[in-house]
Amino acid sequence: MGQKDKRDSPLVNSVLALDDHLTELERIGGKINSTDMSSDVDAEHIQKLMTRFAECGQGVSVEVANLSSQLQEAQARAEAVAQGVSRQAELFIKRRNEQSDEFEKFRVLGERVQELNAAMAQLRPSQGHGLTQEDRAKLTSSIPAFEAQLTSLIEELQALRTSARNSRMKALEKSAESLAQKLQAVQKKLSDLTNRES
Q1: Residue ranges of the alpha helices (H) in the chain?
Q2: Distance between CA 166 and CA 164 in Å, rounded?
Q3: What would the pLDDT profile of 68-115 be if each residue is shown by its tens digit?
Q4: CA Rg, the chain, in Å?
Q5: Which of 20, 113, 174, 196 has its CA 20 to 30 A from that of 47?
Q6: Contacts (Cβ under 8 Å, ≥6 apart) of 112
Q7: 103/76 Cα distance (integer angstroms)
Q8: pLDDT tens per residue, range 4-14
Q9: How buried is 172 (Cβ within 10 angstroms: 0-12 exposed, 13-18 middle, 19+ buried)?
Q10: How many whole angstroms separate alpha carbon 166 and alpha carbon 169?
């Protein structure tokens, strides 16, 4: 709100009007109070001052009531804004908690992908060496478990990506895309292992 806007507000106008009436009340009251009533006074002038003083007093009363009304309205507006901010704060906390929960699911899923990848890497023959008969037996017996884990990971990832998309969590969608690429790499490694075994 600019300076001009503040000066045009009903609250500021009320304060300024009250200040004007008080200033005039004090000025006229000062004249009346400084007049020596025991000497020869101009009765008509004193009567005008008394009438003007009463008008100013009435103006002060009206502006005090107006200011009180403006303050009540300002308080009501401030309370309405505070209630809105409170609701937004609750929504923000809920949203932040949802994001934390979803990112925690992604973190755990990412760890499971790394564990699966590491387990599969252990069955891969070292560079330049072929698979021994024992390695082949281990690999053959492990492939169904790897495939089941991979399928489970892919399904969980798809569910989390859908949840992230529905919740409009763009950062989470990017994380999901990255994790999907890791799963595709794991799937390719599993396919390579299966093809080697065949």
Answers
A1: 3-7, 10-34, 43-123, 133-166, 170-197
A2: 5
A3: 999 999 999 999 999 999 999 999 999 999 989 998 999 999 898 888
A4: 41
A5: 20
A6: 149, 153
A7: 40
A8: 556 678 889 88
A9: buried
A10: 8
Which phi and psi (to 5°) does residue 42 adopt? -85, 100
How wide is the angle at C-alpha 162 spanned by C-alphas 192 and 184, nearest 5°? 10
Q: Which residues contact 113 (CB under 8 A, 6 or more apart)?
A: 153, 179, 182, 183, 186
Gap between the Cα atoms of 80 and 32, Å rounded: 47
50: Cβ–Cβ under 8 A, 6 or more apart, which residues? 32
pLDDT at 28 over 90: yes
pLDDT at 128 over 70: no
Global pTM value:
0.59
The mean pLDDT value for 148-165 works out to 88
Closest CA to 120 of 102, 95, 145: 145
Running DSSP on this structure, what letter comes out for residue 95?
H
| Token digits of residue 8 | 């045009």
Which residue is it, tokens 């303050």? 71
Q: Give the pLDDT of residue 6.
A: 60
- Pick 127 or 159 by higher pLDDT: 159
Give the span between the Cα atoms of 11 and 19, in whole angstroms: 12
Residue tagged 């949802």 (tokens): 98
